[in-house]
Design goal:
The complex is a heterodimer of chains A (129) and B (138). By secondary structure, chain A is mostly helical. In chain A, 88% of the residues lie in helices and 0% in strands. Chain B is an all-alpha fold and 138 residues long. Classes of the chains: A mainly alpha (129), B mainly alpha (138).
Chain lengths: 129, 138
């Protein structure tokens, strides 16, 4: 593998992971702002809950990022072996989400959650072997 | 206050775990029946939408998204995400015991690591304490 193709491989994998992380964080942020869906559904019914979710700009941005992640994964899979692309992007997404959740969602990512992210990341990488 | 989950909410997390993995498996099975789709024969995608396995897969993935969003409305992202990873374990176990595929030593090790990772967060609080409660939507 040449240096140029290695650069392309990892740029596409990082794009998949980056857009997936942005999608997850934006969606989580939107759901936190909207509030407990169980309570909303009890008050306004299923249609009220759907309206609350679909009416959130943050949620729509999150879905857009998820769609971008999906299409960049398709692009990556057309250039990179699935045995590298799938576990590498999934593992990076797990670690990146832990960092992004701490930075942007101010979640309490304690030792237990870091360990969980690392274990899941390593586990996903091993599943591809 | 420690945020623990009610049995109903654990059920939602179980839906998150199962619907994604089983949905992907059903889609994969359906698409293997439809055959390869090339850029010149995109019409085949509409044929795929008539396949019962593909339809079931799409319905399950819609169920996954609904339960994932519900879980995110009362739990942290770093609590919910490891649960979604448990789906990989479900797929591996389905392939071993239903499709009788061989699982290598590395895959068993991966399964054990993911189970441990999910176990770490499952015992902890589901939501980070905030000074001010989140504002509900209109």
């Amino acid at each position: 593998m040449t240096a140029a193709s290695t650069l392309v491989t990892w740029t596409t994998i990082l794009t998949v992971a980056g857009t997936a992380i942005a999608g997850d964080v934006l969606t989580a942020k939107a759901m936190r702002n909207i509030g407990d869906l169980d309570i909303i559904r009890a008050k306004s019914g299923l249609s009220g809950a759907i309206k609350a979710v679909v009416g959130s700009t943050t949620f729509l941005l999150g879905v857009l990022c998820m769609a971008l992640s999906f299409f960049s994964l398709l692009f990556t899979l057309s250039n990179v072996d699935v045995s590298l692309a799938a576990p590498a992007s999934a593992s990076l997404t797990f670690i990146g989400n832990a960092v992004a959740a701490k930075l942007f969602l101010h979640e309490n990512v304690d030792r237990r959650r870091w360990l969980a992210a690392l274990f899941v990341c390593a586990g996903v990488a091993l599943l591809a072997k | 206050m420690k945020h623990t989950l009610t049995p109903q909410r654990y059920l939602i997390l179980l839906c998150v775990m199962l619907t994604a993995s089983v949905g992907d498996t059903l889609l994969s099975h359906g698409m293997s029946q439809v055959g390869p789709v090339s850029i010149h024969h995109l019409g085949l995608l509409f044929v795929a939408l008539k396949n019962p396995w593909v339809i079931s897969g799409i319905l399950l993935l819609l169920g996954f998204f609904a339960s994932y969003l519900t879980a995110l409305s009362w739990a942290d992202l770093t609590f919910v995400l490891p649960s979604t990873a448990f789906g990989y374990v479900v797929v591996a176990l389905l392939s071993r015991f239903w499709l009788h595929e061989t699982i290598s030593f590395y895959r068993w090790l991966g399964i054990i690591l993911i189970v441990c990772g999910v176990g770490f967060v499952a015992n902890g609080p589901s939501l980070t304490e905030k000074a001010q409660p989140a504002e509900a939507a209109q």
